[in-house]
Amino acid sequence: MEHSVTIEYARCRGCTTCMKSCPTEAIRVRRGKATILKERCVDCGECIRSCPHKAIRASSDSISHLQDFRYNVALPDPVLYGQFQNLDSIDFVLEGLTRVGFDAVFETAKGSGLLSDYARRYPPDPDPLPRPAISSACPAVLRLIRIRFPQLLEHITSTITPVELAAILARQKAVLETGLAPGEIGVFSIVPCSAQVTAAHTPDDLQQPVLDGALSIRDLYLRLLTPMKQIGTPRTFSTAGKAGVRWAFCGGEANARSGSERFLAVDGMDSVIRVLEAIEDNRVPDVDFVELSACTQGCVGGCLTVEDPFVSTMRLRHLIRNLPDFASNFDAEVGDPGLIQADKELEFAPVFLLDTDRTAAMEKMTAIHELERRLPGLLCGSCGAPSCHAFAEDVILGRADRSDCIFQVRARMKAMTGNEDPDDYLPTPFRRRKPPDSDPTHT
Predict the structure, then answer these.
(1) How far apart are CA 109 and CA 90, in angstroms?
(2) Rounded distance, CA 196 to CA 194, Å?
(3) Contact assessment for residue 77 and residue 108, using Cβ atoms and an 8 Å cutoff
(4) CA–CA separation, 364 vs 355, rounded Å?
(5) What span, in angstroms and rounded, lies between the C-alpha atoms of 49 and 303?
(6) Per-residue pLDDT tens digits of the chain, which is 443 residues long
(7) Can you give the three-state secondary structure of 363-401, one letter per residue?
(8) How far is the C-alpha of 347 from the C-alpha of 308, rounded, in Å?
(9) Alpha-carbon span 356 to 210, nearest angstrom
(10) Most distant CA pair in the chain: distance in Å?
(11) Considering only the top CATH level, what class is 358-430?
């Protein structure tokens, strides 16, 4: 899998901030630079938000890719609408997209509305499905479950994501209207986060991608400002309702598609992990549906946006005040339930597997626990790993050396120097020697 999250090494100072914020322990700092263990990365963007030196970024597709196709369709995420000040109509944004290179626009919110209508019309049979059902909308959460919570894979809803449904319908519509072959039509999503960029090229739920690329909201924002100001009265483009646009912020999906009030809407990776652990331990038996968003406040908090997520949410609530609740009818506009079903089964990704041989894996696990027992347990990060357990694992798997731990160096210096105090070899915060009583700073 090619990830969209990359490190610009010239900017990286090896400060370990990103390493400590990663929810899957996918980052190490070696030789003064951060590196990503790609098999563990879920593209959640936590490292992008936390890096104080702007050394980590998400690589999205370039708008120049539109030249590869004869006809191009934009699929704007509803988050895009909330990025602009003093906006009274979504149509300004949609017409603006037609002025920066796109031939047509098909709203991702349209796909969200259709999925919401389907969920309300055809609620799943509660008997064969484990409860609670978990939303499949957030790609970062899907990958997190695949690598850390494989027991919960059967809880994930089997429907494709709104942008994937929008892409399928947009291509069908463009073929009918233009007479072009499907391969001559470029369908590009405009997304708020790095996880959706990766999912556009390597989806977890489909055998083949249905998108030709993913452009970031941040890249298109400045391009849209001037064309939007030149629009007097915009043409009518928007066909989405409140239910579809609300998927942009936390709770919108659950409110739109859930037939009851027994649902959870959770945002932020720390909270998501805590809720998944509770579901795994069967501590939330009275919940029917769980909406999980890796970003704060939902997709509006994505790392490829320009506006504060709380401000963006406020603007979206203002924009949709006059829209109908449901502007999409699944039976009339889609009809075939098979079109929205994932055609690839989500599988456990054993990225934390120590060895394919069980005996060897057990021996490595024993060695890891033995080494971890002799480590200080301070989680200081000075070794370049996010925790003492991760460092012990790195040592046993050959990714690090015992001497990378400064406390292991301390023990070695103590053995080598005899009566000399080995604290002199450690940075001040980690010295065990007490300051003298005469020190005026000592209280």
Answers:
(1) 11
(2) 5
(3) yes
(4) 8
(5) 7
(6) 688 999 999 999 999 999 999 999 999 998 889 999 999 999 999 999 999 999 999 999 999 999 999 999 999 999 999 999 999 999 999 999 999 999 999 999 999 999 999 988 887 665 566 889 999 999 999 999 999 999 999 999 999 999 999 999 999 999 999 999 999 999 999 999 999 999 999 999 999 999 999 999 999 999 999 999 999 999 888 899 999 999 999 999 998 876 667 899 999 999 999 999 999 999 988 898 999 999 999 999 999 999 999 999 999 999 999 898 888 889 999 988 999 999 999 999 999 889 999 999 999 999 999 999 988 888 888 889 999 999 999 999 999 988 888 877 666 666 666 655 555 555 555 555 555 554 554 44
(7) HHHHHHHHHHHCCCCCCCCCCCCCCHHHHHHHHHCCCCC
(8) 35
(9) 34
(10) 88
(11) mainly alpha
Q: Which residues pair with 290 in a beta bridge?
A: 134, 264
Length of the chain: 443
Q: Is the dihedral of CA 326, 332, 333, 338 positive or negative?
A: positive
Q: Which two tokens stand for residue 151?
A: 């027991």
Instruction: Quote the pTM value.
Output: 0.88
Domains 5-58 and 358-430 share a fold: no
Report domain extents, the chain. 5-58, 63-340, 358-430
Nearest to 275 by CA among 292, 296, 295, 255: 292
- Distance in angstroms (rounded) separating the CA atoms of residues 274 and 136: 18
CATH match of 5-58 with 3.30.70.20: yes
Three-class SS of residue 35?
Answer: strand
- How far the first Cα of the chain sits from its last, in Å, is 55
